[in-house]
Known about the structure:
Helix content: 25-40%
Strand content: 5-15%
Distance between the termini: 43 Å
Radius of gyration: 21 Å
Number of helices: 13
Structural class: alpha/beta
CATH superfamily of the largest domain: Periplasmic binding protein-like II
Oligomer: single chain
CATH architecture of the largest domain: 3-Layer(aba) Sandwich
Order of helices and strands: HEHEHEHEEHHEHEHEEHHHHH
Number of domains: 2
Largest sheet: 9 strands, mixed
Amino acid sequence: MPSPPRRPVSRRRLLQASALALPGAWALAACAREQPLSGPTGGGSSAGGSASGGATSAPAELQIASPTNPVKWPINPGNEPIASGLEPEANATLRLYNYPDYLDKAVIKDFQKEYADYNVKVEYSTFNDYPEALTKIRSGSIPYDVTFMSYNYMARLVYGDLIRPLNHEYIPNIADVWEEFQNPWYDQEWQYTVPYVIYTTGIGWRADLIPEDIGARPNPYDVFWDSKYAGEIAVLDDDREVIGMTILRDGGTDVNTADPATLGAARDAMLEMLSLSQPRVTISGYTDIPEGVLSLSQCWSGDMITGQSYMPEGVDPSVLRYWSPPDGRGLVNSDFLCVLKGGENPVLAHHFLNYMLDSDVSLKNFSWVGYQPPLRSLTPDSMVADGYIPENLAGAVVKPEWFEVGYPVLELPPEVEAEYQAIWQQFKAGA
């Protein structure tokens, strides 16, 4: 019987974008857009296929990928995929750039052992949020090889010329990935990315502290507006997650809306929430709920799986609960790995991406971080049956079909991003 996650993890620390950092990132993308971006023509590669792939010409406007607008990103001249058949760089230091505690350190050590013949070392550096990461990557001060990102940053990565297109021949383990991630809408033909983990956003609570089944409510999101839980609950410190949840609670489905009326209604509802339940704003629900600091919080699915490691002595982890819409029509997202253009070890970086898609490696990493990899060999049913996720947290399992019906958080135009930030700052000022 596998053990539960062993270490603390917060999936995205301080994820909300900095209002000051965003314009700079978009300005960089706009500048890159003015440069010629055409590349080789022809069909793109499939898993194990041609390395070069097809490249598209620069769009007239900066593109934003979405499930209804899949994007095949351009390949910039001078940034073609690496050649096939190259040996990994020897005596190299592979530099990974990621959130703290979002990768099992034992997996890193195993990778070094796997490539001991090449005398490889791995250096793990961390960032607090994506704007910080983009600023550091753009500066080129440290030649990071691999980073972990979310698809609402794809345009900035590609048009900023920050990531390398992939040579698929080095990544045969893509064959075990869910089909929707072998040709994802945010990176058609996976020219630049491979998936890392998937997750939903929902509600976590301790059943011994909350005297009701929150998931049995007609609208479980209403709990955040319930005054009887005032001072005991929290929402995520993430503007997109809280605004998106509020839109869903009020019957909407467009969690990336630019409609002023919808955003105004969400703002008013969030201010009403403040007056009724006085929620905390935090990303530490994965520790606070198990430890009883909070009774209930908006959280990511992996947080409650990880939360088993934080139960006080004598308290059974079976009291933990997690709810997100059981039909998948809630917030559902994923993170990916990509190879940075400024890295010094592109071949080794490709090998690392392939290594992370190995089923045994992914399972080991999952048992530590608590976030599910989208692999065919790790089925939702098997994760519960094999004990990686207990029955009381079965709602934290993410199903493939949810990426067809769920609501992802998308990249926003800068003027719309500013509207979200204004709402968020008003909300946090009163929290």
